Write a sequence for this structure.
């Protein structure tokens, strides 16, 4: 993948990613819904292979920010550059970024009229123009990786929530993305299914994927994240290494948040 | 333990009949059935008594009796009996309904998509279309279209024979009528060859698609092949003229076969088929390791097949007429075919008759040469198509809006383009929602064509009314109406339901 240190990550001890190049660059990103300002000058750099977790109370702009990165939401001020491609109104740039950024949603959003296999192969066949046989072989390998190859011929409605979310991860991976975005991937799941999804995400992080995760799973954040962002009111209140964030947060607001949830 | 055993005892106790849900269920069903049948019988017998008392005839023999009706258009404009008149009217109504359903669907999809367009002007126009059309009574629209069409130029005898492809006037729209001519059968053979080639082309394209995944559109290729053969066949069909003598030769051979030979051949075929079936059956009962297990039932089947083939042999031997009849009809068939192929090399597969104008009563009108859409038909057709398109457009819009936003977002996130999202993600899901209410609109359209009576188009209702005015057979005509519209509606329902079942999402 890169010339990086062989990644034997991470626990919550920080890897040295200082030499890695920037994968996502946000500069002063702002966005309004009518009069309501959802993002207020968000700036951050995310390195290749880095895993960042975005925390914050509801309505703090976490989801809006992550959705701006593959332009499901359009930012009105500032710059967003993903893998050296700036997101503008240029359709070609948007398509290039979307085909390199995978996304997993809170509500899975699988295509209910297609089988699991067709869900995974749809984009490779139609966007990457892969031969069907090749796309299906790759899809089966991915379903194997997320642990549900036996469900390939079923429909999403026949699967449990955890299984559906794992299919959604496989579907995103089928496009061979360089970045994965997770928008509260476990919030709609029953407690006993959260672990199976988090395990898949941990394995993905170990494989060196650049990941940006909005979640409330503190265990996951402590174990896997290289860096944490804490947001409130559309601003990044604090960004810090995982260790520092939990043991010695810089901001009073972060301390308050941590004391409420831990 | 004790509780378990007491429960078991309690269950095994006999439930009194008036508390047994199964008995209650069946009793209610039975009671309802008796009540419904009783009411129907009562009403029917009352109606029968009253009709008899007033001497009202409810026989259907008027269908055979002559009537004096002029029908505006269709398969028969001067039917000689009541039945023939209703038949011609039914064809007119069906023509209206089927073409109306097709064009209303196409227009409805366009309207529905236009209402969701990003383009402000397109969206406004579509909204105006829907709001105006669905809020003005259909009858008013129909009369409006009719009066607009009557303002078209008059048709006159002085215009002479019409040589154009399309003739529009205040009597309607007339187009050339195509019909099959002498060269048709040779052309049909070319198309048949095209169909065979098309089958292989389809298989080949399917293989290409499976191998590479590229969209190879096998059905389109197959259709294209057949169409290409059909087109080329229009010019080269005489290459099959040699088939005429061949068919003639086959007919001669069939004619020269003595009946006795035919009997022997039939007997051999019968025994051969039975032997082949028995052989296949026995090998199907053999397991993978060669173990043969044949049950008593199987023995019975084998014996039955053998006996049946023997019976056929005896029948052929005793009843010589059967083989002779088969030979003769085979010969006749080939002789007819030989005739059809024995044509002038320049004979065309199709011919067309241009629209003509003749004196009809006091006024000039289109003759029977051209294919004419009368003013009445056009008014009803455009009125129901426009009117129904507004409702179907709303169904389409609703169906598309019913697909959750997350579906489009997920499709965008994996990199699908606009057209791909609509085709692979939105439409398949929207169709589930669009179809059931659109089926209702098809039913409405079919029933709405009965307003044709207002613009003098001879549909089922208009002709039926004339028939019962002339024969006095009100009730039978009404019964025929009901039966007709009911069967149309049921047919549409069955088709729409079939699609619904196919579209249904699989859930646990």
């Amino acid at each position: 993948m890169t010339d990086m240190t062989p990644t034997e990550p991470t626990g919550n001890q920080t890897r040295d990613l200082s030499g890695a190049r920037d994968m996502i660059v946000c500069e002063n990103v702002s966005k309004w819904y009518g009069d309501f300002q959802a993002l207020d000058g968000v700036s951050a750099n995310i390195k290749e292979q880095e895993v960042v977790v975005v925390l914050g109370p509801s309505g703090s702009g976490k989801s809006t920010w992550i959705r701006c990165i593959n332009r499901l939401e359009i930012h009105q001020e500032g710059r967003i550059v993903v893998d050296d491609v700036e997101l503008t109104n240029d359709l070609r740039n948007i398509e290039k970024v979307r085909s390199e950024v995978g996304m997993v949603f809170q509500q899975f959003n699988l295509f209910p009229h297609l089988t699991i296999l067709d869900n995974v192969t749809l984009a490779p066949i139609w966007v990457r123009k892969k031969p069907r046989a090749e796309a299906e072989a790759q899809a089966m390998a991915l379903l194997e990786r997320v642990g549900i190859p036996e469900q390939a011929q079923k429909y999403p409605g026949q699967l449990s929530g955890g299984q559906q979310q794992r299919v959604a991860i496989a579907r995103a991976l089928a496009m061979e993305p360089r970045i994965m975005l997770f928008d509260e991937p476990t919030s709609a799941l029953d407690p006993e299914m959260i672990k199976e999804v988090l395990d898949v995400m941990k394995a993905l992080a170990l494989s060196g994927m650049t990941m940006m995760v909005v979640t409330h799973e503190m265990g996951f954040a402590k174990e896997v994240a290289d860096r944490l962002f804490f947001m409130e009111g559309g601003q990044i209140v604090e960004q810090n290494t995982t260790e520092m964030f939990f043991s010695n947060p810089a901001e009073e607001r972060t301390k308050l948040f941590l004391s409420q949830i831990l | 333990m004790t509780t378990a055993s007491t429960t078991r005892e309690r269950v095994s106790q006999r439930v009194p009949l008036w508390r047994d849900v199964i008995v209650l269920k069946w009793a209610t069903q039975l009671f309802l059935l008796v009540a419904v049948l009783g009411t129907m019988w009562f009403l029917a017998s009352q109606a029968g008594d009253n009709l008899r008392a007033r001497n009202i005839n409810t026989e259907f023999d008027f269908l055979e009796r002559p009537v004096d009706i002029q029908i505006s258009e269709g398969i028969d404009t001067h039917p000689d009996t009541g039945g023939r008149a209703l038949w011609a009217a039914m064809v007119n109504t069906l023509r209206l309904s089927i073409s109306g359903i097709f064009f209303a669907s196409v227009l409805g999809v366009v309207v529905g998509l236009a209402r969701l367009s990003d383009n402000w002007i397109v969206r406004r126009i579509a909204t105006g279309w829907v709001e105006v059309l669905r809020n003005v009574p259909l009858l008013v629209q129909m009369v409006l279209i009719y009066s607009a069409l009557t303002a078209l130029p008059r048709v006159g005898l002085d215009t002479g024979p019409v040589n154009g492809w399309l003739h529009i006037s205040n009597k309607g729209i007339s187009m050339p009528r195509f019909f099959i001519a002498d060269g048709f059968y040779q052309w049909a053979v070319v198309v048949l060859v095209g169909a065979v080639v098309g089958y292989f082309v389809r298989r080949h394209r399917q293989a290409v698609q499976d191998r590479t995944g590229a969209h190879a559109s096998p059905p389109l290729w197959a259709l294209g092949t057949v169409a290409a053969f059909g087109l080329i066949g229009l010019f080269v069909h005489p290459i099959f003229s040699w088939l005429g003598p061949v068919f003639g030769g086959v007919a001669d051979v069939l004619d020269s076969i003595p009946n006795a030979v035919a009997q022997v051949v039939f007997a051999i075929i019968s025994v051969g088929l039975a032997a082949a079936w028995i052989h296949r059956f026995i090998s199907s009962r053999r397991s993978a390791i060669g173990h043969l297990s044949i049950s008593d039932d199987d023995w019975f089947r084998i014996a039955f097949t053998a006996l049946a083939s023997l019976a056929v042999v005896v029948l052929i031997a005793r009843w010589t007429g059967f083989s002779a009849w088969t030979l003769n009809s085979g010969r006749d068939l080939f002789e007819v075919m030989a005739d059809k192929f024995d044509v002038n090399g320049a004979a065309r597969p199709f011919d067309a008759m241009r629209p003509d104008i003749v004196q009809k009563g006091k006024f000039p009108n289109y003759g029977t040469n051209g294919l004419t859409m009368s003013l009445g038909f056009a008014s009803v057709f455009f009125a129901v198509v426009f009117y129904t398109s507004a409702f179907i457009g709303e169904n389409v819009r609703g169906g598309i809006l019913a697909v959750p936003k997350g579906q489009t977002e997920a499709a965008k996130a994996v990199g699908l383009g606009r057209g791909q999202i609509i085709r692979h993600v939105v439409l398949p899901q929207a169709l589930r929602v669009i179809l059931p209410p659109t089926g209702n609109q098809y039913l409405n359209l079919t029933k709405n064509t009965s307003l044709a009576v207002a613009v003098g188009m001879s549909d089922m209702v208009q002709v039926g009314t004339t028939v019962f005015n002339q024969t006095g057979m009100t009730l039978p005509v009404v019964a025929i109406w009901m039966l007709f519209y009911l069967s149309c509606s049921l047919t549409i329902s069955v088709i729409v339901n079939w699609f619904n079942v196919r579209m249904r999402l699989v859930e646990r």
